[in-house]
Amino acid sequence: MKNISPITLFLLIFCVGANAQQSKFNDEFLQQVAELRDAALTDGLAYDITESLTTEVGARLAGSPQDAKAVAWAQAKFKELGFDRITTEAAPLKRWTRGQETAEIISPYQHKLTITALGRTNPTPDEGINGEVVHFATLADLQAADKSEVAGKITFISERMERHKDGSGYGKAVGARGLTAQVTAEKGGIAAIIRSIGTDNNRTPHTGAASYDEDTPSVPAGALSNPDADLLVNVLKRKQPVTVKLTLTSHWDGDYTSQNVIGDMLGSEKPEEYIVIGCHLDSWDLGTGAIDDASGCGITMAAAKLIKDKLGPLKRTIRVILWANEEYGLSGAIAYHDAHKDELRQHILGGESDFGAGEIYALGTRVAESAMPTIDIMMTLLKPLGIEFAGNNGSSGADLIPMRRAGMAVFGLKQDGTDYFDYHHTANDTLDKVDPKALAQNVAAWIVVTALAAQADHDFGFGLTDKTE
Amino acid sequence: MKNISPITLFLLIFCVGANAQQSKFNDEFLQQVAELRDAALTDGLAYDITESLTTEVGARLAGSPQDAKAVAWAQAKFKELGFDRITTEAAPLKRWTRGQETAEIISPYQHKLTITALGRTNPTPDEGINGEVVHFATLADLQAADKSEVAGKITFISERMERHKDGSGYGKAVGARGLTAQVTAEKGGIAAIIRSIGTDNNRTPHTGAASYDEDTPSVPAGALSNPDADLLVNVLKRKQPVTVKLTLTSHWDGDYTSQNVIGDMLGSEKPEEYIVIGCHLDSWDLGTGAIDDASGCGITMAAAKLIKDKLGPLKRTIRVILWANEEYGLSGAIAYHDAHKDELRQHILGGESDFGAGEIYALGTRVAESAMPTIDIMMTLLKPLGIEFAGNNGSSGADLIPMRRAGMAVFGLKQDGTDYFDYHHTANDTLDKVDPKALAQNVAAWIVVTALAAQADHDFGFGLTDKTE
To answer: Which of A31, A102, A255, B195 has an alpha carbon 20 to 30 Å from B415's alpha carbon atom?
Structure first.
């Protein structure tokens, strides 16, 4: 699409005409946005940024030595891209550090298992622990079990996550990851293993955070890869006692202060009003964090840079936030909300790219009804990218939760997540999983939403009820 | 296919009629074979055997404690399946044992890499070795390099294997695995790393044997997973010196005697003549050896068992050999050839199933021209399975190499290997990679070839020139 089509232009003018009060975009601006959208489809900047972060920093678990390197990388990259203002804001966190992680079936057969510790769980002794496995099909089955079934044993939940384009299998399965360590502890178990929350068949187990608070008992807990979980299920089918040895020495490791890194492209008329986009800067430590979430950084940093270069400063500031420690604490999100709680109304609209690098197929919003005409114009510009409207009952990326709960308007550009949970939180989250073409389509879509929001004459509401929760 | 179709029957009778001298199969026998072929398509025995070996033994590197367990498993399984005669034959080998295997980029960035030692290579010191990386696109480039480029460095070959249905990318790429340790040593390098010989994008590196003899200098050598090789290439693109640390403590570990395990279904007329089928019993140690080669054991053990049960004893003995240490020495193949060298002519026709669990799409043979009419009849029965004839210039599985070179007639039922090298020699070689339906199609095909060969009135030639070498 090199030029805006006559029919698109007609639709744009019609929309602008019909909603002149809300959306005084001029035709030339909309034409420029359409041209930039199309140019973005063959632009490689987002991929280059993604390659840079994964190659020059790689794995960057919050609180690890790589955390500070990621922060330095982000500052340098914002500078290189010509952002007008680059700041960092402290994000304190309680550090969790991965240790050794091994598992094996000891009897009745001998197998090494691939396992990864669940984030925020407690360690086994250094020499590991042995125990008989008690098998539950689901978390609910474990929750319903009598303490006598669990006491002194290693629990195993074997439920498998379902594959769906919208990733909806995740919510259904992830409760096991969140709760098994605490439920097992409550029933007197000594450790917990789950089938990875993932849709693949690779020997690359999926980590991810477990629920944790200091006052609730918990046990060491890990996730087996899907093939290892299959194997354990098959061994258990033999109806003999099955003994497993686990060594998971991951542990809490004191306090750390990470940083949100913020790049602003300043607005020309209302620089103190922010359209907030971004990604999380941290990653789990098993892969290089390419789809979770370097690609989100590439998409949103590139979108802001291309807008600035091709459209010039817009009315509002485009604020790109690279959030700290999304993965096991939302530390950056909480810190930012707290630091800015007196100016939340200056945060006009926000979104986060944090669902991989798949093509975008829908826009969801949670904005005031009065802003819907502008959403309609966005949709007119998004339709040529294959993007449908998913309604005004939308949500946002996790790092916007604190501000969304406070009433901020948000949007979500929904990515095809069919394969996302093959790699999510595994050693397999590496650059090869990023398709440059799909990434560029993401940038095109983020440009449309971000530019129109930054240029709109109106806000998108505040104090909205979060209908998703 | 429940019954033999009229047209198939016509073709069979036509063939039998036309070649009455060579192939005195009676119609009833051919009808029974066709019925058994069709019944095999929904039979689960091969899958059950594959599941049993991978679950009850799992990884079974030759010379490891699992080797003896695999031998015991094979003896028990042959007995359970009702084989007439079960024997073991010694297969001496020089034992190679995997140790620790870690790698990391130390500068200019820090990354943990996934690596696996190449079989039969020497260890690094326990504390590892550091060195600057010198990058070659191909083995040929390394071979052409001046010693001054390589001396004191760690070589890295980044050539990527191509994906093809017939696995032909393997032969093109695998030379790097075979020779890099010796070529690097010859040029004064301190260690060698290669991109895995594999077609996947998983963090599961591919092991496999390197060339070795006691008199040729060699260095420690390992294979990076494809994503890790990509990362190293991208780091090298920055044109700064790249330093890597390798710890590969795998080593030679004395002598061991493994066993070929042989199950015979005795012939009724010529019990001393053998149709040799089978698989290799050993596996690499990273996965559970499901596609390499438990599935081959499942296919051939099930084929022999179903023939015996449904067709009764045939004229010749069907000999199923589970070969010892195919992976790093062909120890069982060499030992069997040497032990039976005075009776090789009693080995009428042989094949090995050792290319995973994909559907069979072709039959290749290397038999005397006088036996071709029987091959034509086999083809008539194989065509309904989607199997074409690939010519009489065929090869065989690796364990038949010594007997093939001595002139034995062989066949190969060629499997779709499109995905085989995604998993081959990796931790990902697990049961979930086996499709029960494709496995059953394999059994059906092996039944056809094995039964007709065992019942044929003629031999398949001997002293044949091995046109494949």
So the answer is: B195
Per the CB < 8 A criterion, the answer to whether B408 and B346 are in contact is no
Relative orientation angle of helices B27-40 and B372-382, to the nearest 10 degrees: 40
- Structure ipTM: 0.94
> pLDDT above 70 covers what percent of chain A?
94
Of B55, B111, B203, the CB nearest to A109: B55
Task: Give residues with Cβ within 8 angstroms of B461, minimum separation 6.
Answer: B367, B368, B369, B370, B371, B409
Q: Label each residue of A204-265 as H, E or C.
A: CCCCCECCCCCCCCCCCEEEECHHHHHHHHHHHCCCCCCEEEEEECCEEEEEEEEEEEEEEE
CB distance A111–B431 less than 8 Å?
no
Judge if pTM exceeds 0.80: yes
Bridge partners, A191 (sequence order): A154
Name which of A55, A110, A203 is nearest B428 (Cβ-Cβ): A203
The pLDDT value recorded for residue B270 is 98
Smallest CA–CA separation between B286 and chain A, in Å? 9
pLDDT value, residue A45: 98
Cα B374 from Cα B460, distance rounded (Å): 9
Give all strands (DSSP E) within B161-242, no chain letters: 191-195, 221-224
Contact (CB<8Å) A231/B433: no
CB of B112 within 8 Å of any CB in chain A? yes
pLDDT in tens, B403-459: 999 999 999 999 999 999 999 999 999 999 999 999 999 999 999 999 999 999 999
